Write the C-alpha cells for this entry.
Amino acid sequence: MLVRDVMSESVLTVGPTHTIRQVAQAMRSRHVGAAVVHDPDSEGPGILTERDVLEAVAGGQDLDQELAADHLTPDAVVGMPDWDLDKAAAAMVAGGFRHLVICDGSEVVGVISVRDIVRVWSQQRSAAPA
C-alpha cells in the first residue's frame, strides 16, 4: 500500500505568526496532532506538533505571545505520495517523529501519522488468511 492511499489530504496549515494557543485550538478542533506551518520565506514546510505545544506549556511560556515560527521543526522531513508505507515508517523511526508531511514537488498534499500506518497494518493483518 502507498502513502497516498493512507495519508490525510485535509491538512491543517497555519502561518508562522499564529500563536501557540491559536495552533493548539485549531489542532484540537480538527482532531489532529500536527499542523503544517507555511512560511513563504522558508525553503520547505515546517511542522508544529502536539509535542511542541506541550514543551511550550511545560516551559511556562505565554501561549498567546509565543509564535509558531519559534517552536516548529523548520524544513520538516517530507515524504512522497508514491512511497510505500514501510518507507514512510522507516523515515519516521529514523527521524524520531510521528507525523510525516507529504509533498508532491513543492506542494504539500497530505500528512501521514504513525497511527495511520498502524491502523492499516492492523487491518491487513486481521484480513490475512490464518
